[in-house]
Amino acid sequence: MSLTVLQEAKPPFIPEGAQAMTIVIEYPPGDPGTPPHRHPGPAFGYVLEGEMVFELEGEPPRIVRAGEAFWEPGGDVIHYQDGNNRDDVPVRFTVTMLCEPGKPMVDLVTEDELSAKGWSRK
């Protein structure tokens, strides 16, 4: 048996009555990904293929490559970018989210809020 720890994180909170949801997302080459959004609870992910541009509020953008893990705290933190960093291959990643019952797993951020924070997608 072989066991490799990819990441360890202590989420700031877990929503009351949280339900876990695991999904696989695939973006074609050059796809910018989901518009800026929030998740109601923490999310933990792993890139299966390709490269993802990953940007959370308060952090610089970074590239997460196949075989690397990422996480985000959820709640009020904006997830600005999760798009494909490559224009020649797809990106495919899995995410496990702790969702709050009755709330959508993704809450898109309004343009007004983005403007107020001084952020714009490049």
TrEMBL record:
Transmembrane segments: none annotated. Residues 24-95 form the Cupin type-2 domain. InterPro entries: Cupin_2 (IPR013096), RmlC-like_jellyroll (IPR014710), RmlC_Cupin_sf (IPR011051). CDD domains: cupin_BLR7677-like. PANTHER family: CUPIN DOMAIN PROTEIN (AFU_ORTHOLOGUE AFUA_3G13620) (PTHR38599). This is Cupin. It comes from Amycolatopsis bullii.
